[in-house]
TrEMBL record:
Residues 10-232 form the Alanine racemase N-terminal domain. SUPFAM superfamilies: PLP-binding barrel. Pfam families: Ala_racemase_N. The modification N6-(pyridoxal phosphate)lysine is found at residue 38. The keyword Amino-acid biosynthesis does not apply. Its cofactor is pyridoxal 5'-phosphate. It comes from the Bacteria. Belongs to the pyridoxal phosphate-binding protein YggS/PROSC family. This is Pyridoxal phosphate homeostasis protein. One of its GO terms (molecular function) is pyridoxal phosphate binding. Keywords: Pyridoxal phosphate.
């Protein structure tokens, strides 16, 4: 059997994003592909980087820190962006603040305040998305839509953070109509916050199985793992 390479799979994902963007009458460049490299080694990141991929998402802190160091050693001249997309324990905020460019999974003000305090001087502001628990969300993580506006206003005030937008992980659905309905809920919340004056520019939604529906509903970042790197092995 001929396995496609990471480069070929990246190209296929890029085509699929471009196709959905075109259908939505959006420029394909308005969607950032975040390659979710959790459980895969630095070699997989290097292969993707060689194929032009620059943004990587990680869920597990220690694994990520080791991988970031290994990749930096191998590619000292290449600037990559690292996004933390896993659940955040409050005693683990410091290494997140020190090693990442983005955090997608902020759901409490206390966590945001710690990230703000712990972001090292001299580093750019840490880009933040608030994780929202839209109805029917599989994981119970995320702020409720009713608590979202107060959280967004509080996080927007914190120094060394830049509130960029919203993130969600809807319950997996195979029907594209249902996929789009969940993403549309997040888009409406995002538009309400923007109408209230918050300068948001990021909707982080869509994974390997539903990225086209997410792009059709306005995703600006899609988080794609298995479609690029293959099935994950957690054993
Ligand atoms: C693992 C993960 C992804 C990628 O999932 P795939 O189905 O492999 O594309 C995206 N977002 C989050 C938050 C994840 O944990």
């Amino acid at each position: 059997m001929i396995m496609s390479t990471i480069e070929e799979k990246l190209q296929a994902v890029r085509r699929s994003i471009a196709q959905a963007a075109t259908e939505a009458q959006r420029p394909p460049e308005s969607v950032t592909l975040l390659a979710v490299s959790k459980t895969f080694g630095a070699d997989a990141v290097l292969a993707a980087a060689a194929a032009g991929q620059t943004a990587f998402g990680e869920n597990y802190l220690q694994e990520a820190i080791d991988k970031i160091a290994a990749v930096r050693l191998a590619l000292p001249q290449t600037v990559l962006a690292w996004h933390f997309i896993g659940p955040i324990q409050s005693n683990k905020t410091r290494p997140i603040a020190e090693h990442f460019d983005w955090v997608h999974t902020v759901e409490r003000e206390k966590i945001a305040a710690r990230l703000s305090e712990q972001r090292p001087d001299g580093m750019a502001d840490l880009n933040i998305c608030l994780q929202v628990n839209i109805s029917g969300e599989a994981s119970k993580s995320g702020v409720s839509p009713s608590d979202l506006p107060a959280l967004a206003r509080a996080v927007a005030q914190l120094p060394k953070l830049r509130l960029r937008g919203l993130m969600a992980i809807p319950e997996p659905q195979t029907d594209p109509v249902l996929q789009r309905a969940a993403f549309a809920q997040l888009r409406v919340l995002y538009e309400q916050l923007r109408a209230d004056g918050l300068p948001l520019d990021t909707l982080s939604m869509g994974m390997s199985a539903d990225l086209q529906a997410a792009v059709l509903e306005g995703a600006t970042i899609v988080r794609v793992g298995s479609a690029i790197f293959g099935a994950r092995d957690y054993s």
